[in-house]
Here is the input.
Amino acid sequence: MQIDAAELDRWFARFAPDAEIVLGRDGVRPPSTGTFDLSAAAFGPGTDDERAVRSTLASRYDRRGEEVLLTTGAREATLLSLLSLLDADQHAVVLTPTTQPAEALSGMLGDVTTVAASPPDWGVDLDAVAEATRPETGLILAANPVDPTGRRLDGATVEALYELAADADAYLCCDERGRGLLSDPPPSAAALGPRGLATGDLSVAFGLDNLGWIAGPPAVVSAARHWRDYTTGGPSALDTHVARQALDREDELLDDNRALVEENRATVAATLDAAGLDWHDPAGAVGFPAVPEGFASGGAFCRQLLRETSVLFAPGDAVGVRDHFRIGFGVDPETLATGLDRLGEFLDRHA
Here is the structure.
């Protein structure tokens, strides 16, 4: 069994420690240290944070608490879902571009057909998805909003994908990590019926790592729980306690983060427009602009930008789209403004 290297993780591991400004991540900045009660007594014996978190999450999908499994982040949620749904005899349809773990893990476990979206709007070709579906298809894998393109799938598209999966006796699994940043989100895949499930976490919308989840049919969640016993065993008591507090204050925290992202999105759009760079106006906290002329690839552009300005973006090469790069704008506005000023000066020098 083989799997490709996680190129984007390697990229950040190599370059982020020395970069002055990192604008390639996919979530909002973490909350301040005083936001939550981190005292040991708050999450010690006698507390039941896990059940409370599962119950709160389940209510989003009109499901029961036992139909939600907590994981150590969204990546584990993706892995456990795929382990529960795919084997070497099964086929998956994967909508791309998407995160490398989603595409690589599904390809490691089963036979995969990718259905690629194209710029400028990165829309889903439902006819192509239907054509890619086979009798042995067990899974359609999607994301909403999409990382890295920032595309938001509307309700009609999500429902059409669900129907395609259900008609094939397959499942629709949707990565919904960025859903909390949408002010008017479409229906979740996990709320559409017995063939839908969703993965999520608190990193993108809340800035909190290490707690993710799977929400879906009992049989899938039960199988994922079995696999989790052999991976991490679940998130820590501290991470679960922080998650409970964050969800208890969800309206307050998400209102602040949505406002931050909206302000920053407008700032990025103005900079890209002034530079003549195309992008699809994104939902969530990431966008996927085209690489400026004169650079061979996203990797070449991002490396030269880093060398000259100490600003780090993420190259589209890592997800198979060499002529685009990912910009993350969930950071504080001052950091973003400084990074964009340096980008503008860089582009002027290379015009």
Notes: The radius of gyration is 20 Å. The chain has two domains: 7-26+251-349, 37-248. The first strand starts at residue 21 and ends at 22. The first helix runs from residue 7 to 15.
